[in-house]
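Table S2 (continued). Query chain:
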Amino acid sequence: MTLLDRYILRAILGATALVMSVLIVLGALFTFLSQQDDIGVGSYSAVKALWFTLLNVPQQAWELLPIGGMLGSLLGMGSLARGSELTVMRSSGVSIARISASVLMAATALIILQVALGEFFAPTLQLVAKQQKAFDKFTNVTVGSSGGSWVRDGDLILNVSRQSGEQQFAGMLIFELSPNHRLRAIGRASRATSETSTGWTLSGYEESRFSRDRVLTRPIGQRSLQSNVTAGFLGLAVADPRQLETRDLFRLIQYYEQNALDTRPYVFAFWSRIARVVAIVFAVLLAIPFVLGSMRASGTGARMMIGLLIGIGFFLVQRLIESGTVVFDLNPIVLAWAPTALLGAITVTLLARAK
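Corresponding output:
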């Protein structure tokens, strides 16, 4: 690593650290404020809401790192352009390709941080935060690391596996008890969708019903289940695909394929996580055409505004595409890569025109 590399690396990473600090503080503040309605329910107090917020900070950092890297690169490279350091580099014969190579080193450091957050810290801590909140708010929920969430509602005992959507779960087990606590029936659904505040639609439902001298097993296909347990309640205790590690998503995709189940939410989440990491490269490189082009003399505010608009647009497109993947039965792999591909096309085009 040359002096030039260290100089550019320090400028970008320093600015990115500053930007991420601001974004994380704002994100944590919004998360804490969103917990105010739950404070006082059960044993969930303000201190526990603060702890819940802190446990969610790594997940917020993982989600915000692409836009933080973009803003940090714009500010860091902008400061070099404003101080004429980039002009001296270019006058000394340093090509745009060479500057890009130095910027890529900063992107590599951010990618390492992104992978560490996304694969080792953020999902685990966020799941712990949700489960702890469930324990504090409700006393009739039990969560196992591999068994999903267990909850009793009258004569029903429900067990749900991982969440596959805001109102949808990848599967549900139903144990029906008699008034004297004898087991009446066991049912299993491949998918459980919350339709109303007091009802579920169970798809791929099979049931075994017990009588005194025999067991009747029959596939029903679909069943409506009346229960006071809502998707919002169960969502406190289980993780949705966006909060799972890549290796867990890969295993879930294999399992669902082997059982002929819908893999779209998990395929999208899997490739979206990879695409988000790749997006950091283009987000950081995007600063080069801006600082070498018409915005080289612009102020910090102008660069921040441009970076925020691009970053917000990136996330809005990603959220819109995520909804379309599930609702409109579109190809999850293509759509997972679409925002990153669009960002990459813009970056490569502007870099090719930079002088």
